[in-house]
Amino acid sequence: MSPMRTGAACTVLLAAVLGTAGCVVEVPLPSERSTTAAPTLDEQPDLPAEADAPSAVEADIEDRVFALANDARDEEGVGPLERHDGLDAVARRWSQYLAQEGLELAHNPGVADQVPEGWRAVGENVGWLDDGGVLDVEEVADRVHEGWMESPGHRENLLREDYTHLGVGVSHDPEHGYYLTQNFATYP
What we know:
By secondary structure, the protein is of the alpha+beta class. The chain is built from five helices and seven strands; from the N terminus they run βββαβααβααββ. The protein has helices at about 55-75, 85-100, 110-115, 135-150, 150-160, and strands at about 5, 10-20, 25, 80-85, 120-130, 165-175, 175-185. Strands 1, 2, 3, 4, 5, 6 and 7 form a seven-stranded mixed beta sheet that branches. α1 packs parallel to α4 (about 135-150) and α4 crosses α5. Mean pLDDT is about 80; it is low at about 1-10 and about 15-35.
């Protein structure tokens, strides 16, 4: 994937995880930082019990990412996803962890255990964007969403018909950029 540009250099990195019945499967995707998929960490890091509340900008990006997901599904004739506070919390906690540590993009190794109970399928998309502080809310959300839609594994998660719910978490660190996580789940 090559860097995306509009007025200033921006880099978007993406990773996707598909999962069913608690089984997490990595989808290999190239990135600027690595020629392999973003890794799943070997061990579950010590995450805080609760995510910090998002800033106003982070919350606006989360809302836009959620809306873009349902717009894409509508365009493909797939039913809408419902927003899920519990999935938001899992996604936000993971994005905050990555941003605060300035880590390479990675999947949450404990996502299946952290998603609220009752799910039949779970998936995760992770993205990173370093915009140098020049993009607005819509541009940040649009660029990461566009990257996800152009990537087969991410697109599959976004358009998977049996997913019923979505949680979105965004965290920004001025030194490390934006980290975005989407957690999908199927609930009866």
